[in-house]
C-alpha cells in the first residue's frame, strides 16, 4: 500500500497540473475520469496473471467507485472540506475524505 506521504504528494502534484491548464472544473473531472479508467484497465489487465485476479480487481474497483458515488449522492455542503481546500491543506483534506469513505477504504494507488 502506498504511504500516506507519497499519496498526498501525488495528489498535490495532480492538483497543481490540473490547475495550471486553466481548465474548467468539468474538464478537470473529465481528465481525471479518463486517467482513472486507463489506470483501472491496466490494473485489471495486470491481474490476469493471478488466478481469480481479474474478477477480484474488477470487484475492488467497483467497490471504490460505489464508495465515491455514495459520497457524492449523499453530500451536503461540507464546510470543513471547503476550509481545508481554501487553506490548501491537501493532507487535511485527504484525511477528511478518508474518514468519510470509512475505515475499510484503501487508496486507489495501492
Notes on the protein architecture:
The chain has 110 residues and is mostly helical. It has one domain. It is built from five helices and no strands. It has helices spanning 4-20, 25-46, 53-74, 79-86, 90-101. It is globular, with a radius of gyration of 15 Å. It starts with a helix and ends in a 9-residue tail after the last helix.
Helix content: over 70%
Radius of gyration: 15 Å
Largest sheet: none
Spatial shape? globular
Strand content: under 5%
Helix/strand-derived class? mainly alpha
Question: Which regions have little confidence, pLDDT < 50, spanning 5+ residues?
Answer: none
Q: What is the number of domains? A: 1
Succession of helices and strands: HHHHH
N-to-C span: 4 Å
Q: Can you give the mean pLDDT?
A: 87
Number of strand elements: 0
Please report the number of helical segments: 5
SSE blueprint and pairings:
Layout lengths: L3 H17 L4 H22 L6 H22 L4 H8 L3 H12 L9
Helix pairs in contact: 2-3, 4-5
Amino acid at each position: 500500500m502506498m504511504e500516506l506521504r507519497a499519496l498526498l504528494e501525488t495528489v498535490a502534484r495532480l492538483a497543481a497540473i490540473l490547475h495550471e491548464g486553466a481548465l474548467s472544473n468539468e474538464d478537470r473531472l473529465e481528465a481525471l475520469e479518463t486517467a482513472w479508467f486507463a489506470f483501472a484497465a491496466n490494473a485489471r489487465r495486470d491481474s490476469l496473471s493471478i488466478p481469480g485476479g481479474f474478477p477480484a480487481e474488477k470487484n475492488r474497483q467497483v467497490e471504490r467507485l460505489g464508495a465515491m458515488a455514495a459520497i457524492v449522492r449523499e453530500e451536503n455542503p461540507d464546510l470543513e472540506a471547503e476550509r481545508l481546500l481554501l487553506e490548501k491543506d491537501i493532507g487535511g483534506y485527504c484525511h477528511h475524505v478518508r474518514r468519510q469513505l470509512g475505515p475499510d477504504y484503501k487508496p486507489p494507488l495501492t
